[in-house]
Amino acid sequence: KMKLAVLTSGGDSAGMNAVVRAVVKAAILKGCETYVVREGYEGLVRGNSDECKTEKVSGSKGQEDSLLNNLRFGDGELLKDGTSDHPTGRTLRGRYIVRVGWDDVRGWFAQGGTLIGTARSMTFKTVEGRLNAAHNLIKEGIDAIAVCGGDGSLTGADVFRAEWPKLVSDLQAQGRITAEQAKQHGHLKIVGMVGSIDNDMSMTDMTIGAPTALHRICEAIDNIDSTASSHSRAFVLEVMGRHCGWLALMGGVSGGADYILLPERPPTVDSWEDQMCDLIKGHRDAGKRKSIVIVAEGAHDKNLKPIHADYVKDVLTERLGLDTRVTTLGHTQRGGRPCAMDRILPTLQGVEAVDALLDATPDTPSYMIGIQNGRIVRVPLMEAVKMTHSVAEAIKVKDFDKAMSLRDPEFVE
Ligand code: F6P
């Protein structure tokens, strides 16, 4: 019986809970024992302290010894020092790898953020940390993990898998696991799903959380539109997306922006300021009462000089005399209820992820589950990560055509 754990890592995104729900339910249906790891890789490193034994509680399918319903998720005390006493009297001290069942994840597809927590773990980046993580998994008998996170989190999973045989033999040499345990857990199975609002991963058309973030931006533009129109104002909206302009571009298209500034495709003209002002003046002359400019947080000009929303505001104010305001959407784009697509995509991918873990052999590569042309696909995880990094490299050397064609191989000017 495969024992499988699911964790969320890196920045949260809408749809992560739906991933956990889908993985847990699909795995139970396929006869696996299911666990969640709280607080991302940090939870793997911390594991379960020995005095913390799983109690038997009654429940339905796969739920027999689950404690999850009794944990207080999001409770800062749990994360700060790993200790907390639950009101029921159960000791939850140092419990990060938790057995879960069917009922634990009921209704999770509709919840924002990640209920099992996420963290940017520094300790997992050290060999010592990964050694503890391997030990904690072996103690629980787990040798398959599904990770939902960004490219850094998925790379971490692949490194862990590659290093696993050495970690196991070191643990045995240190007397922390038996020869029998080492033999039983010779191979770690991993699978990745991309949780990122930025839609910044290559080899998948959509990342989990991006559709919801886009809806937020679209709604925000609608809201701003009416007030901008009333006062005949200009608004500069800064949207998230780190190195990726997908949210800015699609948000701008869905909300009818006048001008959009992206990292992958900076304006090629000598003065984008002139270009922007000419366009907006043209729109105003044609009778438009409001102007909207979208700036991706990673936007820059063709010489890689960062373009900030405040600077855009100054240009519009000084050159066109427009009464201009700046709105930074920030984390309102990331939190909140997932839209339908961020329930469907994680559900389909979670089911495929379990199948990929069940099929995995030491010779198969680590897979990332993606979606291409409407079909759920398995792609070699490190190939996708490498291609994603190449976009950043291309931007760094100002090869913007290459950046665009890496984002979309069919891209034409
Ligand atoms: O990658 C997701 C993202 O929301 C980016 O769009 C943004 O740049 C970053 O995370 C913000 O990170 P933090 O929540 O740590 O400020």
From TrEMBL:
The chain holds residues 7 to 419 of 816 of the full protein. Pathway: Carbohydrate degradation; glycolysis; D-glyceraldehyde 3-phosphate and glycerone phosphate from D-glucose: step 3/4. This is ATP-dependent 6-phosphofructokinase. Its EC number is 2.7.1.11. It catalyses: beta-D-fructose 6-phosphate + ATP = beta-D-fructose 1,6-bisphosphate + ADP + H(+). The active site is at D198 (proton acceptor). Mg(2+) binds at D151. One of its GO terms (cellular component) is 6-phosphofructokinase complex. The lineage of its organism: Eukaryota, Fungi, Dikarya, Basidiomycota, Agaricomycotina. It comes from Cerrena zonata. Its cofactor is Mg(2+).
